[in-house]
Design a protein that fits this description.
It is a single chain. Strands 3-4-5-6-7 form a 5-stranded mixed sheet. Strands 1-2 form a two-stranded antiparallel ribbon. It has helices spanning 48-52, 56-59, 69-72, 100-111; strands at 35-36, 39-40, 75-78, 84-88, 115-120, 123-127, 133-135. A hairpin with a 2-residue loop joins strand 5 and strand 6 (123-127). The model has no long low-confidence stretch (mean pLDDT 95). The protein is built from 4 helices and 7 strands, in the order ββαααββαβββ. The chain has one domain. It is α+β, with helices and mostly antiparallel strands and 137 residues long. The structure holds iron/sulfur cluster (SF4) (2 copies).
Amino acid sequence: MTAALGKSCGACTMCCSALEIVELKKPAGRMCGDCRAGRCAIYPDRPQICRDFECEWLTSRNLAPPFRPDRVGAILMEDPDSDEYWAVCPPAKPMAWRHPRLFAHLLAVAKSGRTVVAKAGLQSWRVFASGDWGPSV
Ligand code: SF4
Ligand code: SF4
C-alpha cells in the first residue's frame, strides 16, 4: 500500500503513541522515545515495523481530511492478524470512537459485513451493524 493521492501524515504522530509496538517494547498510549518535536527523530533509520505501518486514513481515498487520526482521535486500521476493522484510541481518551463522525463511519463499515472493533489499550468494544455496541469478549 502507499499513501493515497494528496495524503501525508503531516502533523499526525498517533501511531507513534496510541499503538502498542511490541518490537519497540512500547506500550499503547506512551509516545515513542524517538518522537521529538512532533516528528520521528530517526526517520531515515526507523525500524521496519514503522516503515511498514500505514493507517487506513493514509491509504484510503474515501476517508476525508477530518478523519486524520490526530483530528478524529482514533487510528482506523486493519487488524494484521484477522479480518477485523479497528478504531484504535489512546488509552487516555478511550471513547474517542464514539465521536458522531467516527461512529457513523464504523457503523457503515459494520453494515458492509465487516467485524468492527474499537480498542484502547487493553479495552475493546464491538460495534454492530444494528448500531448497538458493547465490550468485546
Ligand atoms: S496514524 Fe496514520 S496518519 Fe497518523 S502518523 Fe500514523 S500512519 Fe500517519
Ligand atoms: S521509531 Fe519513529 S516512526 Fe517508529 S514509533 Fe518511534 S517515532 Fe514513530
